[in-house]
Give the backbone structure.
Amino acid sequence: MPSITFSFEDLCSLVGQKLDDKKLAELLDKAKAELDSKLSSEITVKYNDTNQPYLWSVEGLARHFRASLGKVKGIAKLKLEKPVDGVSVDKSVSSVRPYIAVFVAKGPKLTEYLLNQLIQMQEKLADNFGRKRQKVGIGLFPAGKVVFPMTYKAVEPDAVSFVPLGMAQELSLKEILQRHEKGKQHGWILKDMKKVPIILDAEGSVLSFPPIINSDTTGKLTVGDSDIVCEVSGTDWSAVNLVSVIFAYALSERDFSITPLKVKSGKEQIATPDLSTEKMKFDYSLVESLLGLKLSASEIKGLLERAQFDVSGSNVEVPAYRRDVMHQVDIVEDVGIQYGYSDIEPLPLSSLTTGGFLPVSMQADTHRSLWIGLGFQEVMSAVLSSKELLFDRMNVAAGELIEIDNPISQTYSCLRSWLLPILLDVLSKNRHVDYPQKLFEQGVVTVRDGSDVRDESHLSAVSAHSQASFTEMRQYVEATLKSIGLSCQFEELEMGCFIVGRSAKVLVDGKEVGIVGEIHPAVLKKLSVLVPIVGCELNLSSLKK
């Protein structure tokens, strides 16, 4: 979770009120934060949530405090100057890092403290919200050294050289990625790209190599600078604009005027930051049904205005610096926060119940005990997996899966639909361990049948050694089912992961409840396993029925 450090006196000055220990703790609680140091001239605040990045600066925190105290109502106002031409975006960046937002802030000269606060906010937003600069990167440089308009384009890594921050010699973009501290730290973002992004001014001088490093000549912000260019680039427009809006609001708290720059990309042009708000219909009755609070419409409106929403009838307007409000329930949460959860009177206990195990848990525990008794070792794996592991390596046709829209890793890109492939993957990683190896796992899998999606309880087991055979696993399956009072039959099965003639469906009362078979040599080759493996998978949900 992010944390920020700042001057307590500065916070009180921005809030317009001297805060004592109790009031500070109360206000921090409303911001989902807490004091992470002793109250002194310099304090550290730790946030317990990561979905409100507009609070990750002393300026954003002070704005939240003023609203919670009732000093201001509704969406904080930010007056923008008339937009001017500023950035030309070349189509070469469309497949590299397509989005950019830029504005100029003019105000008082930067002190060392204020410069450090801007750098801290830059790092917190880029590292935490921006996924270590991959999704969003931020550049700050003096406007006095920039000849407008700027150009944002992609070039070959050997084509451009400049002096990066913290160095005295010119390096090519490729050399910066290899030799500069920031290049080594963040170079993975641009790995394997034939072209990389760069920002130039009208005279061709390099301003920044986003998201890696600024120029030491034209992109170095120092104490005493008063005109600042804030540049935000990334792979997601909504995130890029949000960070640009957050910075603009923070600088306006310091009496900086904000001049949006027109960003032109092909035939499209937009002035950034874009302060467009979102309006949502709000059902006031949700406050009572979800929080148990009987409040009037005017009371709810007052609480919403303290939460920095504009309210008109049933319309609630969400500020541009907030993108965490996705549903009416999120608005109800802010009502509860501003009312104070500790001030909500608890209801008396109306019923007494005795805790116990769910039948499905007792059934699963019974099966687990049986397989442990047969000498199998239990493993536990993640519910997320990949198509390659579940199907490609198993030599079976890909079935319907529940896939993740924007996976961080292809290794965990979908919900597992069966357990056998995962146990085989464990065996492939345990080739250095002596055989025999006998493993099992009991857990939930998610299967899709057309529009129907359901969770099922499965149990899978594998046995790996020189004499592993279909007969061995068949006997294990028969023994465990007999122990719970069920008899089973076996029917021939052809499946790509099993050897033909050495695999079968497991039937109970004529209904298929599982599969068993010897793993095909082609699958063993993909796993780099040199001993035979036999496995089974039982649908415990079907067995229970």
Q: What stands out?
A: The longest helix spans residues 112-129.
